[in-house]
Task: structure prediction
Amino acid sequence: MTPALAAVLQIGLLVLALAAVHVPFGDYMARVFSDSRHLRAERVIYRLGGIDAEADQRWPAYARAVLGFSFVSVLLLYAFLRLQDQLPLSLGLPAVGPDGAWNTAVSFVTNTNWQWYSGESVMGHLVQMSGLAVQNFVSAAVGIAVAIALVRGFARHRTDRLGNFWVDLVRGTVRILLPVAFLAAVLLLVGGAVQNFAGPQEVTTLGGATQSIVGGPIASQEAIKDLGTNGGGFFNANSSHPFENPTAWTNLLEIFLLLVIPFSLPRTFGRMVGDRRQGLTILGVMASIWLAAVAVITWAEMRGLGAVPQAAGGAMEGKETRFGEAASALFAASTTGTSTGSVNSFHDSFTALGGGVTLLNMMLGEVAPGGVGAGLYGMLVLAVLTVFLAGLMVGRTPQYLGKRIGRREITLVALYILTMPTLLLVGAAITAGTPALVDASVQDPGAHGLSEILYAYASATNNNGSAFAGFGAGTPYQNVALGLGMLLGRFVPIVLVLALAGSLARQQPVAVGAGTLPTHGPVFAGLLGFVVLVVAGLTFFPALALAPVAEALL
Amino acid sequence: MTAFLRQSVVGLRLLLVLTVLTGLLYPAAVYAVGRTMPERADGSMIEVDGQVVGSRLLGQPFEGDEWFLPRPSAAGDGYDPLATGASNLGPENPDLLATVEERRAEVADREGVDPAEVPADALTASGSGLDPHVSPEYAALQVARVARHRGLDEGTVRGLVVEATTDRELGLLGAPRVNVLELNVALVMLD
Result:
């Protein structure tokens, strides 16, 4: 089989698996968040947590619960990192410094998993498994909860109640993330991923050198890292490390895990608003953009354009032999399309075009298909904008699923859309415009250096977490600034989304008339896709032109 | 503000409960499953004469003409599991370009072949710095040298390469590859 044919079939197999799973899984998630009963295990959790599971919250209460939970999550994780040396299973590693601990605590609580550190030399087993991996679960569950609250804003009428954040959080963790992660972890074990609690083992290699081989609770962390679109690797090498991702089929499994919840949530949305076509339309837009990114990156990497790939006869710098260019490109498109940021190959060394598309993928705002929950609410916000723009064009009152898009709604949407680009461009501009910061962190000369800065801030503000890793992010300034970018890039949009959900839920739906723009079908999907590209394009074209575009053309 | 603090206290209690569930019980359950396949869960270690010589999943450094040599590695001083990672050098980086040219000349000289025959994986550092594999092309290039230095028949060595080769899984996943450590262990076993 030729490499090109194998690449196409590999993508086809993944698409088939996702197509088969998203319907039952999406329906299952809709049932989980509509169920009026609690599992016995959940009742125990509510009792231990002191939670009134029957309370139905208004949007400000829902938002306060999200923020309160995330606030204590940052504090607890920060304390965990600062006290690492006092805890068991620390492998003798020292406590993490204050700026690094702040950055990492924020990074994992915001579902970003940006890592300034190398896991194998900074984090002990207990911090990894009971600190970082716990946030891999709950930060993902927070994202799903917020998306569900927005969906309820469309589905509910004449109410100021959006549901119960604590119940949504617990159900997302117990009924969705935990069982799927466990199953995936077992499969990874079968593939060869490591799960033990041993420290480094000194071996004398066959050639007579010494090698310190370190394992840890890796399979359990790998599964939720991908499923929850978190991305924080146990090791610095992340999913390129053979203990995290031993072989080509575990690689495809991990890509599947990245995509399965984001691609299933549109179905959940369609179910909950009582019109499956609405979900299918959203899914169609997400899938088209993702597939386009897969196609371009795969072509670029297999073609191997650029000075170094041409000189080497292939774009294999930063890539593993067992994956090759195709499986590396598929992972890269999926991890940047889903705000995950785990990597099985290093994007900094990708061709200018391939690396540029990974950057663009994040700049689209992580909506194709986006992070768990965050992708759906991001795309729904853009759908509201699309309805509004279409309404302006034909002179009708814009409405989406019977809810009028008035001044308050469109104001919230506008603020949402402006938040990430503002944080990204201001943050990147400060670093790019300060010679001392450039000298401290930027590795490559010229246009590629600017790409490294843009990538870092795009990754942080979109809660992706992958990097052009030549960028030296472990300085006190970058730790603090990128931490702020992650924090604001996560929670400002969440509060705006919940406010939008609150104002939608209050409305009595207006009747669908002959003049109502249908929000399902290919016309609306095309319009929505156009809006996604135009919003990102107008915002970021100047920056992209100076960085990856210039690099590809020069 | 008091409402926020009240929610935070609820959040802290719940977080502690969820930490026990997802941070202790879950990894412990996966660990328990792993004990049914300890060989894999402990890193797929390879023994030669009762001595552990490494993991079949991790590349390791080799020096000398009697060995099949792995790809260049950016992990520490090469194949250091405590400093994993890639070079992260960009596609137009002049230093990387020079390094690639240097490696091409070096490999061609060592194997006694035309520089144009040296495949890309021999000239580039992997993502993890612990890549256990080389391409079948790079392995084939090394057969003559290894056979000569070990006083072996080239056909025998080529047979060992075939045994250490894995094709694409299901015929379509990933890329064909040769496990360097397994191949070198097979060489040692011949003695």
